Amino acid sequence: MKVLVINAGSSSLKYQLFNMANNDVLAKGRVERIGMDSAILVHEPKDKEEIKEVSEILEHTTAIRKVLDKLVDKQQGVLVSIDEIDAVGHRVVHGGEAFSGSVIVDDSVKKEITRLIDLAPLHNPAALLGLSAVQTNMPNVPNVFTFDTAFHQTMPKSAYMYAIPTIFYTKHKVRRYGAHGTSHLYVGERTAEFLGRPIEELKIISCHIGNGASVTAIDGGKSVDTSMGMTPLEGLMMGTRSGDIDPAVVTYAMGKEDLTVSEANSMLNKHSGLLAISKISSDMREVTEAMEAGDQNAQLAFDMYIYRLRKYIGAYAAAMDGVDAIVFTAGVGENSVVVREAVCTKLNFLGVEFDSERNKTGRGFDKRISKDTSKVEVLVIPTNEEWMIARDTFELVSKK
Ligand code: AMP
């Protein structure tokens, strides 16, 4: 079976085509700047040369059609016919309380996702655009939705409720939903495999730290708490997001600077985090370089980032009454030797014995960065959300 995985944003679309028979990625790529006359399509077929094309792509339906054309291209294609694609899996950001796992899309699923647009106004409409584009181009192929929030639906009420009047929950569904669930689930499963132990007996702290960042406490294979909240703004300090903040700061700042709701949202989501404090960049690579060159703002941004991450690790060890493994993933987690070192050399109280040499060697594969004698395992596991979406799609469609 061949499965196409689509991750649609409002003006972009990423894709990967999997051959489920041997877990192979046949091709991957992306379309950026959808809606513009200079949209960019990058197609990377396996064992063939990459294509980069600039053309007018005004909506997602055209973007998908161009992607399908590339997949069957005589030179750069990997399929003889589009009919070889048996199913399409879509990443959806918000599944609310309705979805605790992936589902085959039907009219009722579509209706529910449309209802949830209120909770994810920037993201869920894009998934629906991606779906409609696929349905137009491939009307007979089954579609599956995989939700970023689904894995966190096992959180107990004590972890997901906010201590505000309950009408906000009952009437407006205000609660913690979390995000990056597909990544945290992948990390949890791979950790158990790597350690050769059943996931049911493991307490794992999964640190997905990329441009967006979240930490999840995984107890016995279930998410029991996660740092992102109703939206991805809560929790860790991120590239451009503030993370945790006294909620009173928001109304105070709005009053002092005469900010509208939308300006306040933009301040917290797009102009905060590493970018605001370093005054240099939202990218950890650039912040680290500036810090190493002696920049004081970059040093403060880095110190705040590390301090907050360590606090969450401590909190989640307390939440689970122990921890067996701390795992790093995503752009910063997989690549930044200095971030991992700064976090882990100050977790001695938990029983972490960090191995600086292991931390420095190699990337792009699962590895242990704690000493063999460490009470708590520390691992780096490159995430693979696309693979999880393909796997769920394959399993659901095979059962149909
Ligand atoms: P992601 O959102 O998972 O794609 O992660 C993207 C982020 O990873 C970038 O914004 C960078 O901040 C970070 N990143 C990637 N490579 C490195 C690196 N070698 N060192 C530090 N940060 C990195």
TrEMBL record:
- List the cofactors: Mg(2+); Mn(2+)
* Pathway stated in the Swiss-Prot or TrEMBL entry: Metabolic intermediate biosynthesis; acetyl-CoA biosynthesis; acetyl-CoA from acetate: step 1/2
CDD domains in the record, alphabetically? ASKHA_NBD_AcK_PK
Quote one Gene Ontology molecular function term.
magnesium ion binding
Enzyme Commission designation: 2.7.2.1
Q: Which gene encodes it?
A: ackA
Q: Identify this protein by name.
A: Acetate kinase
Subunit text: Homodimer.
